[in-house]
Fold this sequence. Notes:
By secondary structure, the chain is of the alpha/beta class. It is built from six helices and five strands; from the N terminus they run αβαβαβαβααβ. It has a five-stranded parallel sheet, with helices on both faces. Helix 2 (24-36) links the parallel strand 1 and strand 2. The termini are far apart.
Amino acid sequence: MKNKVSIVKFLKGKSILISGGTGSFGTAMLKTLLKIADPKKIIIFSRDELKQYEMNQKFSENKYPIRYFIGDIRDKDRVNRACVGVDIIIHAAAMKHVNAAEYNPTECIATNINGAQNIIDAAINNEVSKVIALSTDKAANPINL
């Protein structure tokens, strides 16, 4: 219980950006943050306009401290702009399906490697205090892209 209290204190009043914010993890993280953290603002950063629209139907910007921000982590300028005033980045955007990555290796590299670098650069440029990056079970002992 002590760890939960320190996490809540750490997140309270912070501006938090979730890359891949409309994905399965991003959606669960948003619900958790709204339930336990009392953040100043949560920025949902994703390239999926439809998923942002659907999420906004459940979690309206008028009712919750949320900002929906269309963008792709491959776009360095857009990532940098999204991170202005952000305290914490939770980086969950990625190509996660092995078959899709194998069939589209340059797209996978552009997203999972170059996109992650864009997140790091934007965090440095905007003096973001913490970046939390996710990995996946598919990254353990990889034998593919």
